[in-house]
Amino acid sequence: MKKLKIFALALILLAGAAQMSEAALSHEQARRVWNRVAVPTGLTELPFSIQNEEVPNAWVTNGESVTVTTGLLNLLDTEAELYAVFAHEAGHVKLNHHQSGANRAAGLSLASAILGNILGDGLAGVAVNIGANLVNSGWSREQEIAADDYSVELAYSQGEDPVGMYSAIKKLSSVSKTQPSGFNSHPPDDRRMLHIRNKILALDPNAKFPD
Ligand SMILES: [Zn+2]
Questions:
Q1: If you ran DSSP here, which 8-state letter would residue 162 be given?
Q2: How many A from CA of 86 to the centre of ligand 1?
């Protein structure tokens, strides 16, 4: 009996250690989470892919496909955060943001938009590999806010945790702050964070935030 207990405990510890060492969302989880966004938004036909790429990023390409990088799966910790990012991308599709920039070749990215905000236009090229996305995305600040709102509303209506949006942006912006350049210590995406926070609180006054 005692042996059995020790064995069970060992299994639990092992499982815990395995989870900790990965500390990331699995590809399997990513597909599942995308599905939880795609079904209620009617986007199950959009091809979904995972790109092996260190830079945390996710984007939609002209409303025709959805891509997430392994870097983002490593950065985020919860399915709620990933759900929020996917729902934000779905928002760009559902709100027809692609029509306003139809000849754009590249997709747009949540992470690059944040990097661009922080680095400023002059330094946007420093935004590593995602610079091309940023330059070509053409999303306006208003469209980003609209996609954020869409994400929070979708999460809330689907019984997901809408705080995931806040938490995901927070993690993305903390990463971009480590980029080597002299940008200021007062990131311009504070305003975006505050907007998201208020949006969540309007839906759920008891929401708990990670700060
Ligand atoms: Zn966006």
A1: T
A2: 10
Whole-Å CA distances, 26 to 23, 70, 159, 182, 200: 9, 9, 22, 34, 27
Distance 167 CA to ligand 1 centre (A): 15
CA of 92 to the centre of ligand 1 (A): 7
pLDDT confidence of residue 5 = 57
Report the C-alpha gap between 175 and 139 in whole angstroms. Answer: 21
Distance 181 CA to ligand 1 centre (A): 23
For residue 96, give the 3-state DSSP assignment.
coil
148-166 residue pLDDT tens: 999 999 999 999 999 999 9
* Ligand 1 centroid to residue 22 C-alpha, Å: 27
* pLDDT tier for residue 191 given thresholds of 50, 70 and 90: confident
CATH of the domain at 87: 3.30.2010.10
**Which of 61-65, 76-80, 103-107: highest mean pLDDT?**
76-80
Q: How far is the CA of 140 from the centre of ligand 1 (A)?
A: 9
Note whether residue 6 is domain-resident: no
pLDDT of 156: 97
Residues lying with their CB under 5 A of ligand 1, a single-atom ion: 110, 144, 147
| Counted domains in the chain | 1
